[in-house]
Amino acid sequence: MPSNTLQYAYEIHDSSINQSIAFRPVELQQDLSRIHCWMNQPHVVPFWKLAFDLERMQAHLERAIADSHQTLYMGCLNNVPMSYWESYWAADDVVAQCYPAQPADQGIHLLIGPPEFLGKGYALPLLRAMVTFQFQQPETQKIIAEPDIRNHKMIHVFERCGFEFQTEIELPDKRAALMFCERHRFFERSK
Q1: Torsions phi, psi of 29, nearest 5?
Q2: Domains of the chain and CATH, by start
Q3: CB within 8 Å of 91: residues ≥ 6 apart
Q4: Which of 18, 113, 144, 159 has the smallest number of Cβ neighbours within 10 A?
Q5: Is the CB of residue 134 less than 8 Å from the CB of residue 122?
């Protein structure tokens, strides 16, 4: 099914890059080979550690899609899929062992897949759009992130979006920077 026939969960025009940013739920059949390719990119492998063969990636995505504590999204620029996102409820995630998670706290994981989209200034507008989308849940007062502590570029992007570093935490798959984005701070910065 062509991507332009899919419904977007959220779409916004970002004037800073003069492009449409949209998110749609991952569709396993349509997105499996794309996500598999992205997870095997040299800029993704060290941080995601999901450089699986296609069969194992399918099993991984099937489990992730079935996991009710998260929703997987494809991020698109002008209808071109170019990023992968996981939006999750922090209280139901392993990260809740690292801070006093509130029931409506949401978390975020992301990657830009195709190398040709790197270094173009897209990460911050994409992240701002996803955080705005997550804050459409009126109960959500905080979005959290836990990027790999070695991923200095993404930590910088999170900070520019309004996330504040809290502490280093140890998660099962990485040493991470726990970062919080409070609703009021995010929208104050957006004015």
Answers
A1: -60, -40
A2: 3-190 (3.40.630.30)
A3: 101, 102, 103, 105
A4: 18
A5: no
